[in-house]
Design brief:
Helix content is 4%, strand content 48%. The chain is mainly beta and 132 residues long. The strands form two sheets. Strands 2, 4, 5, 6, 9, 10 and 11 form a seven-stranded mixed sheet that branches. A hairpin with a 6-residue loop joins strand 4 and strand 5. 33% of the residues are buried.
Length: 132
């Protein structure tokens, strides 16, 4: 059973940084795709970034150059380093995991994850608030 527990959210001023962490269990298989999603008030949940078991990453255009996803397999922990934060980054951020059975249709990318939202396991979410 996959369990995901996020931490590290909080309030920060514009231009600041935060690092989110996600403690994982049951998500160490070679076909697991780890991801961060976010959901702002009144908006749909959207994919932010993904990383596969060998460290290949993808990012939404809106966060390229600002956010970095990484994982520490020894600690079973996923991270999201967020730099140069803006008020529009305010959202609840969710750690997510998905088993990939057909990478041709649902690859471990932001776009692939958007087509397979229902296939994810989810954490409880952590709030990030960026003030101007």
């Amino acid at each position: 059973q996959v369990q995901l527990v996020e931490s590290g959210g909080g309030s920060v001023q514009s231009g600041g940084s935060l690092r989110l962490s996600c403690a994982t269990s049951g998500a160490t298989a070679s076909n697991v795709c780890m991801a961060w999603f976010r959901q702002a008030p009144g908006k749909e949940r959207e994919g932010v970034t993904t990383i596969d078991s060998v460290g290949r990453t993808s990012y939404a255009d809106s966060v390229k150059g600002r956010f970095t996803i990484s994982q520490d397999n020894a600690k079973n922990t996923l991270y999201l380093q967020m730099n140069s934060l803006k008020p529009e980054h305010t959202a609840t951020y969710y750690c997510a995991a998905r088993f990939i059975w057909d990478s041709r249709v649902f690859p471990c990318t932001v776009a692939g994850g958007a087509r397979a939202v229902a296939r994810h396991y989810w954490g409880q979410g952590t709030q990030v608030t960026v003030s101007s």
